[in-house]
Task: inverse folding
């Protein structure tokens, strides 16, 4: 399963789906029926699986457009049971993430209701809480064993033809026995390991991925400001000497986080240039004093590679105390994505 939820982790829902759609063995994992129907409108024929919640009022649309749903609560189970033409669905089991899903001590009741309502799931799945950290194997191993027992319970009462799945990127990389019938690869597909700890497996294999997304802007204005000049809103930064600055037409509205004020860096002509002052809604200022021959219209790399220098989303996210998941998904969906 190629996980393309949340606008493909910021990479563009249709951009990514279109690149993978010719391989019919690939499922697409989305967050919502809204994302699923967008794929169907764009003639994507691959299996589409909704990982998040679906309102009962939209289950008929799921059936009509062959969208596979997640059922993770008794309320959702009752809602799908009321449908005359029921969409395909998988049961979500909470083996320790403690988010979506039926708890292990609810399985007896769940199986009883599935038989009562004459509901036949197409699959059963779970999600790991700590699989991206190989140092904490015990918890993930416990989730795997719990899931195995629950699969056995389903098979014991006659649900034998199930697709079982548990591993996201962390489990796929680090826990081979968690692969079951299918793996759900999200962040790894976009070229990032899910955590710093998962760069090396517990059997010594070094994992190296290359991010696929480059984010660029241009210099819209360049000038020199005097020593002691304040830069940006609220005068949060004062330059210690005459300084050449570049104005970039990008800001937090576009997804370039305000937390990068005075700490972020961009690439111009293969060199790092520091963000100075506040990142504002639509503009950011960079210090280009040490970058030669800069002019208006020059390309600026916010995420990516320029000559031999690189800045990736995990570096930027670390500066603002978050993860590459959040940083990438917050890139404004209105910004055009181009597949090269």
Result:
């Amino acid at each position: 399963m190629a996980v393309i939820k949340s606008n493909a982790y910021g990479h563009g829902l249709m951009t990514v789906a279109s690149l993978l759609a010719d391989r019919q063995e690939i499922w697409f994992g989305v967050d919502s029926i809204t994302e699923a129907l967008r794929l169907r409108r764009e003639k994507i024929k691959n299996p589409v699986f909704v990982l998040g919640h679906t309102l009962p009022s939209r289950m008929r649309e799921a059936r009509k457009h062959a969208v596979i749903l997640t059922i993770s609560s008794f309320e959702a189970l009752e809602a799908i049971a009321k449908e005359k033409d029921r969409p395909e669905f998988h049961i979500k089991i909470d083996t320790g993430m403690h988010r979506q899903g039926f708890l292990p001590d609810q399985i007896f009741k769940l199986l009883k209701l599935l038989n009562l309502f004459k509901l036949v799931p197409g699959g059963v799945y779970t999600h790991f809480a700590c699989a991206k950290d190989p140092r904490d194997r015990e918890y993930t191993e416990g989730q795997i064993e719990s899931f195995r027992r629950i699969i056995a319970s389903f098979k014991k009462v006659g649900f034998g033809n199930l697709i079982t799945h548990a591993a996201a990127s962390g489990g796929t990389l680090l826990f081979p026995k968690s692969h079951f019938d299918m793996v759900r690869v999200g962040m790894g597909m976009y070229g990032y390991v899910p955590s710093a700890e998962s760069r090396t497996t517990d059997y010594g294999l070094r994992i190296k991925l290359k991010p696929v997304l480059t984010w660029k802007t241009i210099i819209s204005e360049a000038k020199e400001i005097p020593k002691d000049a304040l830069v940006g809103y609220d005068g949060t930064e004062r330059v210690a000497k005459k300084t050449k600055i570049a104005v970039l037409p990008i800001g937090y509205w576009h997804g370039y986080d305000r937390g990068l004020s005075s700490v972020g860096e961009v690439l111009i002509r293969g060199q790092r240039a520091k963000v100075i002052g506040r990142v504002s809604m639509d503009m950011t200022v960079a210090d280009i004093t040490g970058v030669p021959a800069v002019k208006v219209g020059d390309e600026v790399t916010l995420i990516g590679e320029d000559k031999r220098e690189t800045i990736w989303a995990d570096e930027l996210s670390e500066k603002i105390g978050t993860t590459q998941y959040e940083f990438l998904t917050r890139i404004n969906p209105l910004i055009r994505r181009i597949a090269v």
Summary: Residues 2-199 form a domain with the TIM Barrel fold (CATH 3.20.20.10). The CA atoms of residues 70 and 140 lie 22 Å apart. The first helix runs from residue 5 to 9. The radius of gyration is 24 Å.
